[in-house]
Specification:
mainly alpha; 38% helix
Length: 136
């Protein structure tokens, strides 16, 4: 949400500056890939992914820095299926969230996050365990 006021101001008030550009959320594809390949990179899909396209845009042109590749961090880079449209990205995400498949499997997510697969042997079987300091 750092691209969207008032969250930008709150963030800067708390932190004093933006994080290193390479650590900011800048690309859906890169974040997806990192979550699949790096156990240290844990992300969650915040509700804004389903209703607020503005959080993906750097409309106020904040200087979010340059990554080591030289790429400037600005608007979030969307997957090809969004056709460069934050509105299309949100629309498709919402369709997926409201799909029959998600409705039929929502209880599995509840078991992982709040239920019996949260800890213990069932969590291990479900690959729902994290480094112990994550829980402190």
């Amino acid at each position: 949400l750092i691209r969207l006021e008032p969250f930008t101001s709150y963030f800067l008030q708390l932190q004093g500056k933006f994080d290193h550009a390479d650590r900011l959320f800048h690309s859906v594809a890169n974040s997806w890939s990192n979550c699949l390949t790096s156990p240290q990179d844990v992300k969650e899909l915040i509700p804004e992914f389903y209703y607020l396209p503005e959080f993906l845009l750097n409309s106020n042109e904040f200087d979010l820095g340059k990554m080591q590749t030289g790429e400037t961090v600005a608007d979030v880079v969307l997957p090809p299926w969004a056709h460069g449209s934050v509105h299309e990205f949100i629309r498709v995400n919402r369709l997926a969230l409201e799909s029959d498949y998600v409705s039929q499997h929502l209880h599995e997510w509840v078991d992982l996050i709040f239920g019996y697969k949260q800890t213990g042997a069932e969590a291990v079987k479900a690959k729902n365990v994290f480094y112990y300091l994550t829980y402190k």
